[in-house]
């Protein structure tokens, strides 16, 4: 699982590093007939999904607020399924309007992506879910919640690398710096450390991803980040972040 997570992080970091196409001229290549225009999505369905996910996020942060999400759920789900793993909160979520598909009269399904983080701001799990909704009393309720895939974002592989490099103190300093950044950030801020490497002259390079989002709203930004840890007396300081 650790190797899978590292592969995913490496892919994301590489994707974020790809530069945009040079030049500003627009071009369009078409083969065959023009594809049909995407069907419009009922704003009420979009609002229902956003409201349900927002209630789940609120319930993950405050146990006393979990009734709101359960009131929107007609199917069955335990706390871990609905609000995330123990000790974690639903930090961010996202879905595309085009992923909303009809499921018969008055019903639809949608694919959503969820990120869960621990109290220090480190991402601990991600999930792909398929939610189904049905019309009820002038609105919609969630009638089914199914995990299509999930991944644990532990840092055991990074810790093992740090041990091999004798860089445990440097890694701990990087974690403290990222935790402080997450606490300072307005809204939601989370992170995940992908790797630690020697950078020469007793320095270490820590590669990570930083995620930012707004509470109660879908969508999040992901940015790659590199911390350089430099020996400073008996410890380490962050030279760049």
Could you characterize what this model shows?
It is a single chain. By secondary structure, the chain is α+β, with helices and mostly antiparallel strands. It folds into two domains: 2-15 and 42-152, Roll (Nuclear Transport Factor 2, Chain: A), CATH 3.10.450; 156-240, no CATH class. Helices cover 30% and strands 38% of the residues. The protein has helices at 2-17, 43-61, 66-71, 79-83, 156-164, 168-184; strands at 88-94, 101-102, 107-118, 123-136, 139-152, 188-200, 203-213, 221-232, 235-240. Strand 6 (188-200) and strand 7 form a beta hairpin. It is elongated. 28% of the residues are buried.
CATH class of the largest domain: Alpha Beta
Rounded mean pLDDT is: 87
Give a short account of the largest sheet: 5 strands, antiparallel
Quaternary form: single chain
Structural class: alpha+beta
Shape: elongated
Number of domains: 2
Strand content: 35-45%
Count of DSSP H/I helices: 6
Report the CATH topology name of the largest domain: Nuclear Transport Factor 2, Chain: A
Show the helix and strand layout:
Blueprint: H1 2-17, H2 43-61, H3 66-71, H4 79-83, E1 88-94, E2 101-102, E3 107-118, E4 123-136, E5 139-152, H5 156-164, H6 168-184, E6 188-200, E7 203-213, E8 221-232, E9 235-240
Antiparallel strand pairs: 1-3, 2-3, 3-4, 4-5, 6-7, 7-8, 8-9
Please give a handful of descriptors for the protein shown:
single chain, 241 residues, alpha+beta, Nuclear Transport Factor 2, Chain: A, 2 domains, 5-stranded antiparallel sheet, 4-stranded antiparallel sheet, 6 helices, 9 strands, 30% helix, 38% strand, elongated
């Amino acid at each position: 699982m650790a190797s899978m997570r590292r592969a995913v992080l490496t892919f994301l970091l590489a994707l974020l590093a790809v530069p945009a196409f040079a030049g500003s001229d627009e071009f369009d290549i078409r083969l065959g007939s023009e594809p049909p225009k995407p069907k419009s999505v009922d704003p009420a369905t979009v609002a229902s999904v956003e409201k349900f996910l927002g209630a789940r996020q609120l319930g993950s942060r405050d146990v006393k607020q979990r009734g709101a999400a359960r009131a929107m759920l007609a199917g069955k789900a335990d706390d871990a399924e609905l609000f995330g793993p123990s000790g974690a909160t639903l930090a961010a979520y996202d879905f595309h309007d085009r992923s909303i598909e009809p499921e018969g009269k008055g019903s639809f399904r949608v694919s959503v992506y969820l990120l869960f983080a621990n109290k220090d701001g480190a991402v601990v799990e991600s999930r792909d879910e398929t939610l189904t909704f049905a019309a009820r009393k002038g609105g919609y309720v969630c009638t089914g919640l199914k995990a299509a895939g999930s991944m644990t974002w532990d840092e055991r592989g990074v810790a093992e690398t740090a041990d091999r490099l004798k860089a445990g103190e440097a890694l701990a300093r990087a974690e403290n710096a990222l935790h402080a950044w997450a606490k300072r950030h307005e809204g939601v801020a989370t992170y995940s450390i992908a790797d630690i490497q020697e950078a020469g002259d007793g320095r270490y390079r820590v590669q990570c991803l930083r995620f930012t989002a707004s509470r109660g709203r879908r969508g999040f930004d992901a940015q790659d980040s590199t911390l350089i840890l430099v020996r400073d007396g008996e410890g380490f300081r962050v030279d760049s972040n």
